[in-house]
Amino acid sequence: MKLTILGQAKQDLVDGFRFYEIQGVGLGDYFLDSAYAEIDSLVIHAGIHRVVAGFHRLLVRRFPFAIYYCVETDTVWVWGGGRLPTLAPFYSI
Which of 21, 33, 35, 51 could anchor a disulfide with 28, C-beta 3.0 to 4.6 Å? Predict the structure, then answer.
């Protein structure tokens, strides 16, 4: 299965990194490591998560952060994180 992280999702991860890094030095890196480990797990577990507003929602275990994605044939599209994404990023890949 192919995994594609769209621009808005990348920005949401950067925003999360900045937020947690302000909370404590090194916490931003830990956040990214945790979030990307969860995203990587979608290669195996895509489609098993609860659907919220048309997107599957994967909750990051160690942080109050959600990853929103959809599955299309053999590709997982990660749309956003932290909050519900809009459809606009899909058309500006």
Answer: 21
